[in-house]
Amino acid sequence: MNKPETPRQQKINRVLQQEIAILLQQAIREGSVKNLLLSVTKVHVTSDLSIAKIYLSIFPVKDAPSYMDALAKNSAPLRHDLAQRMKHQLRRIPELHFYLDDSLDYIEGIDRELSQGSNPLLHRETLESRKKK
Alpha carbon of 1 to those of 4, 45, 101: distances in Å? Predict the structure, then answer.
């Protein structure tokens, strides 16, 4: 049973989303990575503000697992950089846990099924199921 987020959690979610997006975009530019589009789609902070679940959308999708592995390995330096940027806003920076946001792929699958003339609601086995996180 999920409790609704408090206004404080919502504010922290928004600020973290903006700051993490800035840090990741800077890292992409500094690393001179070509043909990569990365966006922070959602951030959810736990009620005790100790863990932040960060959902990312990565294009091209075929390279996403390698980028997610790299982010998981480099979450500590990223957390440190985030702490330097937000030291006057948050006392403690939450642990960063990265997840791949597959909602766009799911929507694309539904659109593809609808354009082919079949009803994905009647034949749910044709769609890839979404994983709960």
Answer: 10, 16, 22
